[in-house]
Every structure is written in structure tokens, then in C-alpha cells.
Amino acid sequence: MKKSLTRRDFLKITASAPLVGFFSAQQLKQSVDQAMTSYKARVVLIRDAQALDNQRKPRAEVIQRMMDEAVRTLLEEEEPLAAWKKLIKPNDIVGIKSNVWRYIPTTTEVEQAIWRRVREVGVPAKNIAIDDRGVRRNPVFQKATALINARPARTHHWSGLGTCIKNYIMFVPRPSAYHGDACADLAKIWFEYGLKDKTRLNILVMLTPLFHGIGPHHYSERYTWPYCGLIVGIDPVAVDATGLRIIEAKRREYFGRERPLKPPAKHIFLAETRHHLGVADPAKIELITLGWAEGRLI
Amino acid sequence: MEAVDRTTVMKQLIPTKVDSWRAVKDDFYDPQSIFDYIDGAGEVYRAYNFQLLLARRFQGPEGRLIFVDLFFMGSPAEAFGVFTHDREGEKLTIGGSAVYKGGLLSFWKGSYFVSVYAEEETPATKEVVLRLGRLIAKRIKEDSPLPSLVRRLPTASLLPDEVRYFHNHLILNYHYFISEENILELDDKTEAVLGFYQFKEAQEQVKTVLLGIRYPGERQAGQAWRRFIHQYLPEAERLPQALVQTENGLWTGAQKNKNLIAIVFDAPSQEIALSLLTSFLQSL
């Protein structure tokens, strides 16, 4: 039987149109029109087969090189420092929003690769902080004029995917207030807490992503793999949407069939369609791939 | 039972030593502090009204870790419900029901939901995880009756390992999306069960779904019924019975009896839809 549009499908579509891939003719036309007229968000995906050692620990010098190359390419500069100077000024107060999840953190190596370049731009050490769960109490974050957002990609029990968009939930006094409807409105945080305009760079860490979660801890090493990548961009939605495509491709490869995230990572698409934080539609994203190509999945 | 007694009881339910693995740390969490321990998944346990969690960490050879999470859910129904949230894996006979996958054993028994997880999965750690699970299940003396709403599900063609029991619409949408809005007016006072059926009359991979809901009273059931019919099956408002053939050629319908509502989705025939609805609603 030919797949037809049921009322359940319709209710899904009205909640998040791009998520399910069903478009009315009018919606499709609008989508194409927007893609034709709006800017393309540039995203750099960089991979290096040597990014991890035998214990899957990041190699600091490789991570630094990857970060430099990604930021340089993103901002079309010859030298990494010139690119960082486009992002950060010496008088900025810089919060590096990290993620300390026990099983797959942002990693010290990624944090330090950022910190080092921010220092080289000329920002005094006292004006730079790295934090996750303490951002609301951290004096540097309280005064921050610039934020750099770096977190690992992993499936998430309540939002579908742990993303750069979601990483700012620690700025909210009661994070569970955003858990409704699969965390659909996480992008609101970026506006309500003045974070959008401060954020200069988003980095989705794809060194050992988690593509499927189980149990209370939502983790099993079985469902991670050494992807050895970083996704870097100015637009958090474009960065996350690119990460999601890779996670979905890995799930297809591993499970041997289409197996949608549960719950769907609808907050990424709603960040574009409902909150206008950035773009999730691949047609609106200029993806630049660098480095190790084998197993890139995208 | 006082909270202090509950912590003592829970500590006694988990061994402190298994082979060369020793308990090294205990932590208790309540519905407010659970996010400090398990991030977003905490919502699932809160959705089942969990009351107390004992997280005991074991250390074994070469510093390897096993985590035992013992959730006191307040009743066997809640323990069963939270177990049904994730039923994927190898089926085992531990407690009321159990599954194992990827280093993780999950089971329920009495008012407890138990998770035993080896950070590194090896044949040796799997053996310890299963042994720990069996020891804990043996120490929980409480019976494990299924919720009465679950026992209403007709059993012919039912996929028993896919049954879900829950309260709120976020969990409903997690397992079977109906609407972003809470059009069935589910909350922590309602009980709901989802049964998935595979009928030989149906196309391959098309499952029929039976959703049964018990409301605290007839008034709440009536209100939810009217809203559901109005928003989801408006054509049924003009029909003698709420049963329609939907756009995919399958049958969707609903019936109400006192404080119970039954809804069937994607039945291969009108007869099957009616049979499921009436069977569910008849008195036990």
C-alpha cells in the first residue's frame, strides 16, 4: 500500500515540518524560496584519524591543529590567530561553555585548544573561564561579553540529541522547565538569557560520539565510535543539524535500517522554524569537509 | 515507612561484595536531586513518581566499575511502568521481567526498578552484572503483580514485550506520537497502557495499537473523551460509534465506559478494531 498522510502524520508535521520530510506543495515552495534568498551558514567538519590515542584519549597537539584549521577555514584567513581575532577582542571577557558529562565530556584538550587561542588574541587569563554547571555562579560568565560554546555530540534521552543549542541549558535556573515536548523550545534560552549575541563560535565535538543510549545513564561504550571529528561554525543550528545528519547516518549503518532518534531531535529544526536562531535545512548550509574522509558519513 | 527506614532497607537489598567486586560508594537521590546524577533521563523516573534512588558503585579488577541503581518507585505498578519504558535487549528471567544489553541489566520486582550497569562490557563483567541482579531480586521479597489496566489488554496477537504502562502524555508521545498537545488530558493521576498488536490480516510491519486510559473519575474521562473526539476524530461526532477508516485505509476508533477510554489505531479491519475496544472495556 502506498504510504499516505494520516492524521498522526499531520499532527507531527504541524509540530515540526522539516522533521518528518512531508511537505505540502506550498510549504515546499516556501522552503525553496527561503533557501534561495537567505544566506548559507558555513560549517566546517574536520577529522583526523590521529585525533585519539589507543585509549581513545584526545591527542592535544592534533586537536589544536584541527581547531586551528577549522577556524581558519571558517573565517577565510591565512593564519589561525587572524581568524580568532575576528571572533574575540583583547578587551572581551570570555566564557568557554563546556560540558562535563562523565562519559563523554568536551575534553580538556578541546577546552585548552580554545583557551590558548583566546589568550593569544590578548585576553588576560583572569578574563577567561571554562565552566559548565557553574556558569550561573561564575563571575567571568556573569560579566562575559563573549561566549564560545563547545560540547560533545551524544544522543539524549529527553531531547533526542545533546547539541550546542542544548548546551546553554545551564544558564537557566530550572533546566527541567525546558524538558517539555522533547525539549522543543531550547532555542528560546539563547534569546531569553541574552546568549545569542554573545556567542562567537560553536563547536560540536565529534571525537567519540554516542549514537544510541540505554539505561538510566543513557550510555554504553558499545554505541560510541572513534569518529575523530569537530564541527565548527558560527550558527549553532547549522552545526547541530550537521552533527545530527552524521548521527543518523551512523544509526543507519549500525542498525542496518532507518531507526529514527527517540525522541526526535525536533529542537534543532524548531530552532530554525519557530525561533529563528539559525538554519537547520542542509540546503541552507555550506558544509566544508577537511581531513580524514574515510567513514565521514556525510 | 519513614524515609530513614527506607534508606536502611534499600542498602540491605544490594550486596556489598560479589567475587572480587566491592561496594565503594553509596549515594541517595530524590526527585529533586536526580538530575545531579543522571541528567535528562531523570524525567522518566519522575514521570513514574519515583521516590528514592540508591546508587551504589562497585569497583573490581583493574579499577573497573559497575553501577547499581535501585529505584524505590512506591508501588509495583510504577516499577513495572518504568521498566516498560525501555524493553530492548536479551530477555531474562530475573524479578518480574528483565532485559540485558550493552552491559546493562534492567529489571523490576515489587516496588523496585533496578539497573545494573558495567562501564566496560566483557564476558566477565556480564557474569557479575547478572549475578548481582539475581542477588538483589532474591532479596526483594515483595510480589510483582501487573497493573490491573495492563491485564485488560486482549492477549491474542499482542506483542507482550512491547507493552508500555505510564501516566503522562510526554511518555505517550515518546512511544507513540498522537499530538503535541495533551488532547487526552493525561497527568500523574491517570493510568495508561499501550498494547501493540501484529495481526495476520495486517500488512507486514503494520502494527495495530490499543491505548487504554483510566481516569480518576467519570467527569475527567468525559471531558477528555469530548476533547479527543473533537480534535482527533471530528467525523465521529456525527457517527453512531466513534470508528472511522482513516487516510491510510486502516481503522481508528474509540470507546468510553465510565472512567475508562480505549482507543485503537491502525486496525486492519472494523471488526478487529471493535473487538479490541470492547474486550478492553469489559469488566475483568
Structural features, described:
The complex is a heterodimer of chains A (298) and B (284). Chain A is α/β, with parallel strands linked by helices and 298 residues long. Chain A has one domain. In chain A, 35% of the residues lie in helices and 18% in strands. Chain A is built from eleven helices and eight strands. In chain A, strands 1, 2, 3, 4, 5, 6, 7 and 8 form an eight-stranded mixed β-sheet that branches. In chain A, helix 4 packs across helix 5 (80-87), helix 4 (60-74) packs across helix 6 (108-121) and helix 5 (80-87) packs across helix 6. Chain A is globular and about 55 Å long. By secondary structure, chain B is α+β, with helices and mostly antiparallel strands. Chain B has two domains: 3-139, Protein Transport Mog1p, Chain A; 148-281, no CATH class. Chain B contains nine helices and 14 strands. The longest helix of chain B is centred in the middle third of the chain and has 17 residues, at 123-139. The interface between A and B is large, with 35 and 38 residues.
